[in-house]
Specification:
Length: 132
Amino acid sequence: MNQTVKTYFDAFNAGDVEAMLACLSEDVAHHVNEGQIRVGKEKFSAFCDHMNRCYKENLTDIVVFEAEGGNRAAAEFFVNGTYLETDEGLPEAHGQTYRLPAGSFFDLKDGKITRVTTFYNLADWTKQVSNG
């Protein structure tokens, strides 16, 4: 498993945004599921602050795949979460829990992540929190 990606996921599960940021290049391109591309650590940090306010998440069953040469990686995992605060344009939050399969794709250079792209099924998440 790519050590940078492993460190990134370990930091995510520990809720350690600073450790996640340490894994990223200064000009990291963050491709958000159903959202815009955010470039740079500052925008990534702001995204994490927003997510941590609205959601408490833990990733399990993480499997990382690495391309030959180590410049690209992918991961498959489950997002286990609690919806803490209503996120704009989404159903009202009242502590609903959810479990979603998800995946992330990474570009890496000089031991840093230069691109993070994450995908999950928003319709599945919406159904889970709407019925919760």
